[in-house]
């Protein structure tokens, strides 16, 4: 049980993930595109219901900002209801353009689950003498392995056979 003073609750975690299915053979599933084990930075917000859709747009902007800083072209797709995950009320996917591969690759997904997850997890917020279920938002900042693919496509110098470190990242190397 949280208090309203604790909201919005913004959490971030590094997340090693595992796919249940094995990689299928074929051109679409080679290399880093669909690994059995992959890594991402997970974003979670627990929000007052009145602010959840505004916070969803902020979460989407945070994920996109990384791509702006890295100068990687991308697009945002709002998923239709038949594409939504079981828990989501609204989801945006971010896809990066891979110029060498000539295709779009999903790199992030940001969802508003409204009160679905908080009801299942029994997360409540106490306001005066009443309790309510907050809204939860989930997003991946960026899928690390897929970001590496995009960085290789945009920053590989074929003539010198080396990967150029993007300007924004040079201070870390």
From TrEMBL:
<protein>
    <submittedName>
        <fullName>23077_t:CDS:1</fullName>
    </submittedName>
</protein>
